[in-house]
């Protein structure tokens, strides 16, 4: 978790620490795991996904007819200690037979080499391979993707600008049509994307946000949102960009409140959207409305990340303090302390520090 100082004195809003946590499941078997550990990717047939990242590997298996999923993770350190080598079953290009791989064009072979380098956790080798085909949309996309992982956001933006959306996927779909990339959307969220227009837009947003180009990020998301208004990931990203901006425009905050008014707290991702909606209300100086919003979503605990529920209570506690309702604030802080005594400055807020 992280504390972010967001409210601007120029807005006439008291500056307060807004703790924000998001680790959510957007669909069965698809988990957004929030980290900034570098790029990773997953692939495999329906019902199975193999994910490779800088921390290790994760295999997700669907159990037919049950709707249940089983995930097994293994760190790179444990793999080395066991003297094992990753299985090539389901790896990029494994759907292609020997003769099919022989018939690949030079550009396609470079692309396949780049994916295989990523599988080996060799980002430098992958970048070198993709650079050889940066004149193609898929090659440039992957160069930008790796640049994001290296925190080279200006360079990432340069590569994404070279991509023609209608050309994306021409190589990747041939090499492995099931390929998905995992992109860090926020300080905590890692979302699955494909090499297509939506994936490109989300990558642009990440590059823009990291450079402080909030208007550009919003423009990218708006263009996609107009045709994909049911996409909760886009909704979450757009709402976050607006509400987390250092100087949030009142008109945009009003738009956030309007576009999320029909969101029902059915899934963890809904909880996160409504959590941000509450903060938008607060930044519009509607503190009582923000408290009511937080109170509504904190009641639903099933399948919600415990840390998210603690963050909701912490934010509500701060708002209670601001409006002088110290007893209610203390109840939230006591509940947080009961679950996690080390949480933020809750010990100090309860007067328990020595």
TrEMBL record:
InterPro entries: DUF4236 (IPR025330), TPR-like_helical_dom_sf (IPR011990), TPR_rpt (IPR019734)
Keyword Transmembrane helix: no
Keywords: TPR repeat
Organism, scientific name: Heliorestis acidaminivorans
Signal peptide stretch: none
Start and stop residues of the TPR repeats: 310-343
Record has Flavoprotein as a keyword: no
Start and end residues of each DUF4236 domain: 18-71
Protein name (record): DUF4236 domain-containing protein
SUPFAM superfamilies xref list: TPR-like
């Amino acid at each position: 978790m992280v504390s972010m100082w967001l409210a601007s004195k120029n807005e006439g809003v008291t500056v307060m620490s807004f703790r924000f946590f998001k680790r959510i499941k957007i669909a069965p078997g698809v988990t957004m795991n929030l980290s900034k550990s570098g790029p990773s990717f997953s692939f495999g047939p329906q019902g199975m996904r193999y994910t490779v990242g800088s921390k290790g590997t994760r295999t997700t298996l669907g159990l037919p007819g049950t709707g249940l999923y089983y995930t097994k993770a293994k760190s790179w350190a444990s793999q080395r200690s066991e003297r094992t080598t990753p299985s090539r079953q389901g790896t990029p290009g494994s759907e292609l037979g020997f003769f099919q791989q022989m018939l690949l064009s030079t550009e396609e072979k470079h692309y396949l080499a780049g994916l295989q380098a990523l599988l080996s956790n060799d980002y430098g080798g992958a970048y070198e391979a993709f650079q050889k085909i940066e004149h193609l949309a898929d090659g440039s996309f992957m160069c930008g993707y790796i640049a994001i992982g290296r925190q080279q956001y200006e360079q990432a933006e340069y590569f994404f600008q070279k991509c023609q959306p209608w050309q994306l996927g021409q190589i990747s779909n041939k090499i492995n049509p099931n390929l998905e990339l995992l992109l860090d959307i926020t300080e905590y969220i890692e979302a699955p994307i494909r090499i297509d227009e939506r994936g490109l837009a989300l990558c642009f947003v990440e590059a823009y946000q990291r450079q402080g180009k909030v208007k550009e990020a919003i423009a990218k998301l708006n263009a996609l949102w107009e045709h994909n208004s049911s996409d909760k990931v886009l909704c979450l990203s757009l709402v976050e960009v607006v509400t987390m901006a250092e100087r949030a425009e009142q008109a945009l905050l009003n738009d956030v409140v309007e576009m999320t008014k029909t969101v029902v707290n059915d899934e963890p991702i809904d909880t996160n959207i409504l959590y941000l909606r509450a903060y938008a209300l607060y930044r519009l100086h509607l503190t009582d409305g923000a408290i009511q919003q937080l109170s509504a979503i904190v009641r639903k605990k099933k399948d919600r990340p415990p840390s998210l529920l603690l963050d909701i209570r912490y934010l509500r506690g701060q708002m209670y303090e601001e409006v002088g309702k110290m007893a209610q604030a203390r109840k939230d802080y006591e509940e947080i302390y009961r679950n996690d005594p080390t949480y933020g400055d809750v010990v100090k807020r309860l007067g328990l520090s020595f």
